[in-house]
Amino acid sequence: MSKMAADHNAINLSQGFPNFDIDQGLIELVANYMKKGYNQYAPMQGLPVLRQNISRKIKSLYDKDIDPDSEITISDGATEALFSTISAIIEKDDEVIVFEPAYDSYVPAITLNGGIPVYVSLKVPDFSIDWDEVKAKISDKTKLIIINTPNNPTGAILSKEDMQILSDIVDGTDILIISDEVYEHIVFDGYKHESILKYDTLKERGVAIFSFGKTFHATGWKMGYSVAPDWLTAEIRKVHQYVTFSVNTPVQWAIADYLEDATHYLGLGPFYQKKRDLFLKLTNDSRLDPIVSRGTYFQLFSYKGISLEADMEIAERITKDYGVASIPISVFYHNRTDHKYLRFCFAKKDETLERAADILCRI
């Protein structure tokens, strides 16, 4: 869709990346470390000072003590952390519960390692989890459950009650958890992010995965990290070492410094809520019906008030004929389930959102 947007000179609200600049101070930190000669391999598990600062951040946010040496691994973006973790856990014929619509890297990593995805569809229109269905689909082959909160592409979030139910389901079993929490700081309307790290049963058997690229508006830097118990971290690192060995050194040093000031990430929710609210206000007169985002920087709209054509068809038509690119939600389902939703990224300059909304209101 990004290529289609470029080919047709359309406003690109499809792929999830900001079109505004990152903090100049962070850029200067990276440049300074480059100039100082910090340009060779970092340790495989990540710079000690960065892992220490992540540990402090987790303590302040979730009141949990995380060992920076044995429980945190710096990764080449969250996607590499996901791949290395799935590869460390999944063997032939292991079953993995996957909630759909799902971020598109989960299933390829599962199947590449011989695993079998077992799909559970989130309930429309709030995209909540039917935990009875989850229980029904767990078998003696279930090795892993993957959750994503806040959720891409839906903008839904999991609650304390969800986390407690999940804890009860896996307690006393060998089932492991991957929690994709790359949008942990982008939560709206007074809600709190519920990390698995807050829940002992989940923390003891889970891997939480995070993204500095999402947090600091620098998706092209591909910098993330995983947090897991020491025994599980040791297995993840066996894969990580041979997938990428280590991660960009000057960027690690810069982010370690940048994390010293908590305002660099604590203000992210209000920042993006203003953009969400602006986009919703600007599109209020359109024939699109929003499913109000609770987190991430994505907003879903039903287009049933405009057309009943397939979501892939209308996404292409709106891009080519009107000049605004989005993502059809059916591509996040293995069987291309089509609920007539389009996803728009609002991590854009206000003027970009204004121009896009003006077009959408005329469809």
In brief, what are we looking at here?
Its cofactor is pyridoxal 5'-phosphate. Residues 10-359 form the Aminotransferase class I/classII large domain. By secondary structure, the chain is an alpha/beta fold.
Read across the widest sheet, the strand sequence of neighbours is 2-8-7-6-5-3-4
**Strand and helix order:** HEHHEHEHEHEHEHEHEHHHHEEHEEEH
> What is the CA-based Rg, rounded?
20 Å
CATH architectural grouping of the largest domain: 3-Layer(aba) Sandwich
Task: Report the average pLDDT across residues.
Answer: 97
Strand fraction equals 15-25%
CATH homologous superfamily label of the largest domain: Type I PLP-dependent aspartate aminotransferase-like (Major domain)
Structure, described:
The structure is a single chain. By secondary structure, the chain is α/β, with parallel strands linked by helices. It has 2 domains: 2-16 and 266-360, Aspartate Aminotransferase, domain 1 (Alpha-Beta Complex), CATH 3.90.1150; 24-260, Type I PLP-dependent aspartate aminotransferase-like (Major domain) (Aspartate Aminotransferase, domain 2, 3-Layer(aba) Sandwich). 40% of the residues lie in helices and 16% in strands. The protein has 15 helices and 13 strands. The chain has a 7-stranded mixed β-sheet with strand order 2-8-7-6-5-3-4, sandwiched between helices. Helix 5 links the parallel strand 3 (95-100) and strand 4 (116-121). Helix 3 packs parallel to helix 11, helix 4 packs parallel to helix 5 (106-112) and helix 13 packs parallel to helix 15 (350-360). The protein is globular and about 55 Å long. InterPro entries: Aminotransferase_I/II_large, Kynurenine-oxoglutarate_AT, PyrdxlP-dep_Trfase, PyrdxlP-dep_Trfase_major, PyrdxlP-dep_Trfase_small.
